[in-house]
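Customer escalation, tier 2.

The customer says the design service returned an amino acid string that "doesn't look like it belongs to this structure." They asked us to rerun it and document both sides in this ticket. The original structure tokens are below, unchanged.
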């Protein structure tokens, strides 16, 4: 047998072995790929199931919270906070699920996160239910308080009406009292009669010489008679004298005893030139009040003299300086 005939079976054997080896490798590779595909499909199925479960729980939770929000506007802000927290938690779980190549441990972690997500939802719903119950209690208390407030307002309104009536009665009494006081004061008024006023030049600081010219005057002397009034109580009684210059101004210097008093007829506070307090004993009395000119400039013209007692005009007259 030739050498070529001897080597042919060997070559064929080698080729057959190679073919068998390749076929075995292809079968093994195909099996491994099928296994990988099956595992991948299982992982994708589990991942998709997790995503579907997450979406269902999330959508259900959002619907529950929206329903609770519609039922109670007062919890709107708190529910919105809870919804935002759930959105963030869902995004966190979705980022893990969306990787697509999760290990068994990562899948278990994702499932645990979804369980925690469900617990979080349940906690939020329970919290809102508790807040609703508290709000219901507060609402009932508010209704009770409103009823009590309404009752108190009615009582207050009645009291205010009574107070208004009492206030009006008090005002009427005060008005009557004022009228009576005024009548009594007028009845007890000390009238001033025979009012005269003269100007004097002082010689040596003590001797008076009557003058008619304003520029020559050092002193004004006003004299009058306080007439008898039997109903005026005995005791101290004050008379206010006003000397009014031709310009309508009251001659007044505080350092010389001037001041102010209430004019009971007009209700105004007016100035007076000088005041004198007497011890009245229900008898007529002649009085004179001196006013030293000092730094006051007197001008020519007609001057008015007014005497007041108890705030009422008791008498008046005029005099003229040239």
């Amino acid at each position: 047998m030739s050498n070529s005939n001897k080597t042919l079976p060997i070559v064929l054997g080698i080729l057959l072995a190679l073919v068998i080896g390749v076929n075995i490798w292809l079968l093994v590779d195909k099996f491994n790929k099928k296994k990988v595909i099956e595992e991948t499909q299982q992982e994708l199925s589990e991942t998709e199931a997790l995503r579907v479960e997450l979406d269902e729980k999330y959508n259900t939770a959002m619907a529950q919270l929206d329903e609770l929000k519609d039922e109670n506007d007062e919890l709107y802000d708190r529910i919105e906070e809870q919804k935002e927290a759930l959105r963030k938690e869902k995004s966190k779980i979705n980022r893990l699920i969306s990787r697509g190549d999760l290990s068994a441990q990562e899948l278990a972690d994702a499932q645990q996160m979804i369980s925690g997500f469900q617990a979080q939802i349940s906690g939020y719903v329970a919290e809102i239910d508790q807040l609703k119950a508290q709000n219901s209690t507060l609402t009932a208390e508010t209704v009770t308080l409103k009823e009590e407030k309404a009752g108190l307002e009615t009582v207050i309104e009645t009291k205010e009406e009574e107070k208004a009536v009492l206030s009006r009665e008090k005002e009427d009494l005060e008005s009557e009292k004022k009228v009576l006081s005024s009548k009594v004061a007028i009845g007890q008024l000390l009238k001033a009669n025979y009012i005269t006023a003269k100007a004097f030049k002082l010689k040596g600081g003590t001797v008076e010489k009557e003058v008619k010219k304003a520029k020559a005057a050092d002193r004004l002397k006003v004299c009058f008679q306080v007439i008898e009034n039997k109903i005026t109580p005995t005791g101290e009684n004050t008379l206010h004298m006003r000397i009014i210059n031709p310009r309508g101004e009251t001659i007044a210097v505080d350092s010389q005893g001037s001041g102010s008093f209430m004019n009971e007829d007009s209700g105004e506070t007016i100035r007076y030139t000088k005041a004198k307090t007497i011890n009245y004993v229900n008898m007529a009395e002649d009085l004179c009040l001196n006013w030293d000119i000092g730094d006051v400039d007197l001008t020519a013209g007609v001057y008015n003299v007014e005497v007041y007692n108890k705030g009422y005009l008791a008498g008046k007259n005029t005099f003229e300086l040239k």
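Tier 2 assessment: The sequence is consistent with the input. The chain has a mean pLDDT of 79. The chain has two domains: 3-137, 190-321. Sent an explanation to the customer and offered a walkthrough call.
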